[in-house]
Write a structure and sequence with these properties.
Helices cover 86% and strands 0% of the residues. With 64 residues, the chain is mainly α. It has one domain (2-25, 32-63). The chain is elongated and about 70 Å long.
Amino acid sequence: MALTLGGIIGACGLFFGFLSLVLMCPGHPRDPEEDMEQMRYLSEQMRKRAARKKSKKTVFQDEQ
């Protein structure tokens, strides 16, 4: 019983160790230029979202 339980725990440990290695391993090296492009895109989207939220808020306040 103890050997079987130890085998199951060991197999689960190996499985999760392999899984974390596969999922956490980067597929390619980081590219600073690509990172900056993504940051610009996200900043632009945040500005647009804030503007939409502000315009909806003013419309709602005007209706009251």
